[in-house]
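tool_call: predict_structure(chain=1)
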Amino acid sequence: MNLRNKRVVVIGYGKSGIAATRLLLVKGANVIISEKRKKEELPPSLISTFEISGGVIFETGGHKKETLLSADLIVVSPGVPREVYAICYKREIPVWSELELAWRFLSEKEKENTIAITGTNGKTTTTSIVSELLKLSGYKVFTGANFGIPLSEYVLSQAKVDKLVLEVSSFQLETIENFFPKIGILLNITPDHLERYRNEEEYAYYKYRLFEKQRKEDFSILPYKESWFEKFKNMIGGTLLFFGKEKNLSAYLKGEEEFVLTTEEGEEVFSFLGFKLKGIHNKLNYIAGSLGARLLGASKESIAKLIKEFTGFPHRLEFVGSFGGVYFINDSKATNVDATLQALNSVNYPVILILGGKHKGASYLPLAAFIKEKVKSLILMGEAKYIIAEELQGLTETYMVDNLAEALALAFKISQPGDTVLFSPACSSFDQFSDYQERGEIFRELVLKYAPSFFKERALEDKKEVYH
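tool_result:
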């Protein structure tokens, strides 16, 4: 679509909406920003930037039907409720994600050197792994999309890179038309975002859209025996490659400390000795990322080197510190139940588990067996605490608090040497925080600010008691 003088409505004025607006202006479009927040709730600098340059109209405080229906194109930010723009489909007005918009302005060479990663859990970690492998192999790399820098910002920068590594979400994949990567990786699908989708099948469908427009010369990398594969395998356009724990896949774990990749050069065996990330799920993420990176030109040497160097990602099973013999783990990135299950599988027991946040529609019952066996105390916080308490009642000692500060203060008090305080909420952060990163940073700050003095004072009190 030639966007010059076209009327484009950008729904949502977050990071993605701002990047899309900048790109649309460069391409000559007339832009209307439709934002549910009131104008006074937006940072003034974000508004003045575009009001000074001209070409942008702000409509705040809600999304007007007549404005949406007047558009030649809608660009929607991730997470905007679909009900907002559903009427546009009926009028055959194109609705694109910012990802789709930016994709239209990449060169064919750039598209041929793009790898995209999706999945319920592990997207950011695996995206980072792929990016680092390609950098270690000598390539100049852009890394972004759903996490980090929007793809539109890359297009605007006019930078020239060798490879593009994109993390993509189901929200972005809902509104693609032409987007497809040379290499697509689906890591896993577990119940998530059921506050948005009718059921898990619909959620899985959008994940599989990653492969929908691929050609046979492209590669589609999936977990072996993925539960929705039989349902959606006809959507996959690329050459299928599987990863997992079973032998003779394109990438598979060989025991607990080795993995094998099969490439055009034959079988390549790597050791996990020195790998710093906890849990088998992280090993599976590493082998899936290694396979994708290798297909895009990463060297064998980079894969062996990064195994010993990669330290993971902030807020994902991040070790914050040990105080008074108590370990503190920041897993704020766990915004769904499956991520919390993986965390419980990966840390030392006994556990004081802090759960809660904004409810996303999925059941917490899958946690029950793990909590009964491995969690000595459960601390529930946020909007979802009553729902969680009802589903998980009677499994272990359970406390209810209002916020993260109260949860940590209680965790300090009830902990004993050898315990692990695990902050793995199984919920989104939007009841009390702007995102999981802010939530994780506050957890880290609270631990580092208050734990040293609390446990020092407790140790002194213990000594007094012994002396008596």
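agent: Residues 7-93 form a domain with the Rossmann fold fold (CATH 3.40.50.720). Proceeding to next step.
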